[in-house]
C-alpha cells in the first residue's frame, strides 16, 4: 500500500492548504469563507486528476462523479472540508480524502462499476461561524429552512445570507440544491471518531449505528448592572454569581445520569456572554449556551428538565430573571441496519476488526439519512482529540478506511449485484 | 434658585449631547472617541460663555480658567465627561457641570476672587474602553506610565496610542501635560455617590474621607478544548466547569469578610472570556476578571490571598492550570482632612446636612491627591444606580452641590483669606 499511503499523505496536505499537518494554530476554514472555497478548488483539481466530472450545486456542495450510465443509480460517499476556528485537519477532510482515494483504488484495480459513484464535498458542515451546522447536506436533503437562518450573523455581524452571496452563490436559489430521492441509491460517510472507543476496544474501524443529536439551550439570566465599587454586596442583582452554580450543576447532573444507567450522555456549558463585561460594572446579563447529547432522547430531555427546574430555584433565591430558549432539539438519527451489516461484512472480509458504536457528534450523514439509506464509518484519531490543533489520524488508519470504502463500493456497484 | 436650576438643566443636556436625559441605551462616550471630543467642545463653549479662558493640554484635558493674577495661586475644581458603554449622563458630567455652575454663581453674585480658579474637564476617566482609567488626571499628576499602557488595545484592536493620536494628540508629548506642584493650591471634585448612603443617612451632601482603590485580578484557567459530543464526561479538562466555583467563592468570601468586621469590602467577578466559546467545543481556556475594593487595603489583600489558595485547590482537584495575574493593586487614597473640615463648614453654613463617608469608586481626585491638597464631594443619585442608562441625579441635588462648591470657592479665593 505504499502508493496509496503516499497519495493520501500528499492530498491530505493539499486539501488542508498546508505544507505540513503540525501547526500550533491548527486549521481555520470557517463556513462559506475564502479558505473553505480554496479547499473546494483543491477537491475539484484532485477529482479531475482521477477522471471524475466535477460540478458545484446551488448550496456550494461539490459533486465529483464517476459517471458510467445515465440510467443507472448513483452511490454516494462524502464529507466536508470546512473546520472550526483553530481546528484540526482531519475532521471532514478524512471523509472527502478517503472517498477520493477509494475511487483511485478502484481505478488502479481496473474495476468497472455498473452504477455511478459520486464523492460529495458538502459545504459548511461546522456550526462554528453561524451556530448553524451542515448547511450543504441540509440543502441536498431538502431540510434547509432559509427563513429560520437568514438573519443569523457571525461575530463580525455578517449574515449567513451575505456570506453565501460573498461565496459566489445566490441566496434565492440555495434550496434548489435539493436532490430527488430517486437520484441517489445510498450515502456513506467516513469520519474520524473524535473519541477513543475504537482503540479501547482494540478494533480497526468503527461502524456507527446511531448519531446522538443535541439539545442546545440558551440560558439568559438578567440582573442589574451597577458600579462594582459603590454597590454594597447586599444590594446587588449580579447575574453572573446568580447563574454560576448552573455551570457546576450541568456537569454534576450529567455525571449522575451516567452513573444511573448505561447509555452515555454528555453535557457542556460551552459558551458564555456577559453584559457589559467590563471590569468596574457588575454583570447585568449573562447568557450561557448548553450542549446536551445522547442517543437516548429521553435522557437529553431529562437533563433539560432538570436544568429548567434548577433555574426556577435560582430565580426564587436571587433577584434575577432567567429565560431558557431551546435553540436545537433534534431526535437522534439511526443509520440503516442493512448498511451497518454490509460495512461489517466488507470490513471483516479484508481482515480488519469492526466495532459497533454510537456517535456523539453530528455529521452530514444525519441529514442524508432523512432521505436515503446511509452508513457511517469511523477511523481512530489520537487520544480522541478533535476540534483542536492537536487532532491527528494516522495515514495507516486513513488507508484502512479507504480500503473499507473501496471494498464497499465494489460490492455495491459491481456487476454481480 | 430657578435661574441656576434652569442653567443646570440646559447645560446638563448640552454636555450629554442630548435632547433629553432618558434614553433606553443611556450614553456612550468612551475614552478618546469622537463622542468624548464633542462633549469637550461643548465644555469649551459653555466656559467661554462664562468668560473663562479655555485651553487643552497635551493629554486632552480641558482647562477653563478664571484668570485674575499671574502671581496668585490657582484653586481647581473638576471631573470628566467620558462614560462607560451604555452608561449614565451624570457620572463625571455632574462634577464638570457644577464646577462651571459655581463660577456662574460667583459671577452672578459679583464676587471678585483674589486667586485664579480653574475648572478641569479631565480626559478619559473611565476604564471601559482600554481597561486603563483616569488617563488625563494621571498625566496632570505625573503618574502616567506610558510604557506600561502603550500596547493596550480596545475590543476593536485599536491601541491606546492610536486612539490618542486619532484624538488629535501626540503620544510623544502626552506626559508633558504634567503640572508642577506649585501651579495649583488645591483640587476639589464633585461626583454622584453611586451608592445610597447619603439618602440612608438623611443627609444632603457626602463629604469623602477615603477612596477605596481596587485590587484587580485576572485569573486564567487552562484545560483542553475538545468536541462536546464525543468526549466522555470522564475524559474532559473543561476549563469552565473547573473555574466556575470560583465565581461563587468570591461572592461568599466577600460576604464573610463583611460579616466579620465593620469596614465594607466589595468583590465582583465582572468579566469573562472563553476560548473558543463555540457551542460544540469544550471550553479550553477561561479568563475571569475580579475587582476587589475596600478602604482597608489589608482586607483586599486577604481576599486576594483566599482566591489564590482556592485556585490552588482547584488545580489539585481538576486537570487545569490556573494563572493569576494582578492587573492593579493600588493602596487606598485619603483626602486632605483640612479640606474635609472646610467642606463640612461651608455645607453646614448654607444649611445642608453633610455626611462623612468613604468612596467605593475611584475618581480623578485620587491622582490629584498624590500631589495636591484635595477634597471630594458626593451628591445623591437615585437608588445608587450608576454606569447604567437608569443613572439619575436631580437638578435640585446638582444645585445643592453647586452651592457648596461656590461657597467653598468664595472662602478659598476671597480677599479675607
From TrEMBL, chains A, B:
- Which CDD domains is this protein grouped with? M20_bAS (cd03884)
Source taxon at top rank:
Bacteria
In terms of InterPro entries, this protein maps to: Amidase_Cbmase (IPR010158), Bact_exopeptidase_dim_dom (IPR036264), Peptidase_M20 (IPR002933), Peptidase_M20_dimer (IPR011650)
UniProt binding sites for Zn(2+) 1:
80, 91, 191
Q: Which UniProt keywords apply?
A: Hydrolase, Manganese, Metal-binding, Zinc
Q: Which residues form the Peptidase M20 dimerisation domain?
A: 217-315
Free-text comment on the cofactor: Binds 2 Zn(2+) ions per subunit.
> Where along this sequence does the record place binding of allantoate?
216, 280, 293
- A Pfam entry, by short name: Peptidase_M20
Q: Which GO terms describe its molecular function?
A: hydrolase activity, acting on carbon-nitrogen (but not peptide) bonds, in linear amidines; metal ion binding
The UniProt record gives the binding positions of Zn(2+) 2 as: 91, 126, 387
The prosthetic group or cofactor this protein requires is: Mn(2+); Zn(2+)
* Family to which this protein belongs: Belongs to the peptidase M20 family.
Can you state the subunit structure given in the record?
Answer: Homodimer.
Name it: Hydrolase
Source organism per UniProt? Halobacillus andaensis
Amino acid at each position: 500500500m505504499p502508493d496509496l499511503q503516499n497519495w493520501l499523505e500528499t492530498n491530505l496536505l493539499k486539501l488542508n492548504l498546508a505544507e505540513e499537518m503540525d501547526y500550533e494554530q491548527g486549521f481555520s476554514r470557517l463556513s462559506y469563507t475564502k479558505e473553505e472555497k480554496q479547499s473546494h478548488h483543491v477537491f475539484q483539481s484532485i477529482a479531475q486528476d482521477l477522471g471524475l466530472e466535477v460540478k458545484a450545486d446551488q448550496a456550494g456542495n461539490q459533486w465529483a462523479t464517476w459517471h458510467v450510465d445515465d440510467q443507472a443509480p448513483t452511490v454516494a460517499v462524502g464529507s466536508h472540508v470546512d473546520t472550526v476556528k483553530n481546528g484540526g485537519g482531519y475532521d471532514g477532510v478524512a471523509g472527502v480524502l478517503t472517498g477520493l482515494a477509494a475511487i483511485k483504488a478502484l481505478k488502479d484495480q481496473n474495476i468497472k462499476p455498473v452504477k455511478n459513484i459520486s464523492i460529495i464535498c458538502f459545504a459548511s458542515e461546522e456550526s462554528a461561524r453561524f451556530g448553524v451546522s451542515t448547511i450543504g447536506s441540509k440543502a441536498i436533503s431538502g431540510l434547509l429552512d432559509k427563513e429560520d437562518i437568514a438573519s443569523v450573523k457571525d461575530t463580525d455581524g455578517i449574515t449567513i445570507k451575505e456570506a453565501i452571496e460573498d461565496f459566489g452563490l445566490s441566496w434565492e436559489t440555495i434550496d434548489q440544491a435539493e436532490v430527488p430521492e430517486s437520484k441517489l441509491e445510498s450515502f456513506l460517510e467516513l469520519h474520524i471518531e473524535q473519541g477513543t472507543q475504537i482503540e479501547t476496544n482494540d478494533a480497526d474501524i468503527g461502524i456507527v449505528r446511531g448519531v446522538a443529536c443535541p439539545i442546545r439551550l440558551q440560558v439568559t439570566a438578567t440582573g442589574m448592572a451597577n458600579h462594582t465599587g459603590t454597590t454594597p454586596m447586599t444590594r446587588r442583582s449580579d447575574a453572573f454569581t446568580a447563574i454560576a452554580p448552573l455551570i457546576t450543576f450541568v456537569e454534576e447532573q450529567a455525571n449522575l445520569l451516567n452513573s444511573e444507567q448505561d447509555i452515555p450522555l454528555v453535557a457542556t456549558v460551552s459558551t458564555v456572554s456577559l453584559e457589559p463585561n467590563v471590569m468596574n460594572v457588575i454583570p447585568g446579563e449573562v447568557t450561557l449556551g448548553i450542549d446536551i447529547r445522547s442517543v437516548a432522547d429521553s435522557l437529553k430531555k431529562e437533563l433539560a428538565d432538570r436544568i429548567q427546574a434548577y433555574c426556577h430555584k435560582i430565580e426564587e433565591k436571587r433577584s434575577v430573571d432567567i429565560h431558557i430558549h431551546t435553540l436545537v432539539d433534534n431526535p437522534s438519527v439511526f443509520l440503516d441496519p442493512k448498511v451497518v451489516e454490509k460495512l461489517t461484512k466488507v470490513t471483516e472480509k479484508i481482515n480488519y476488526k469492526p466495532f459497533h458504536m454510537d456517535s456523539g457528534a453530528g455529521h452530514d450523514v444525519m441529514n442524508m439519512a432523512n432521505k436515503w439509506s446511509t452508513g457511517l464509518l469511523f477511523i481512530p484519531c489520537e487520544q480522541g482529540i478533535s476540534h483542536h490543533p492537536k487532532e491527528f489520524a494516522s495515514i495507516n488508519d486513513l488507508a484502512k478506511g479507504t480500503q473499507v470504502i473501496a471494498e464497499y463500493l465494489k460490492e455495491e456497484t459491481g456487476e454481480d449485484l
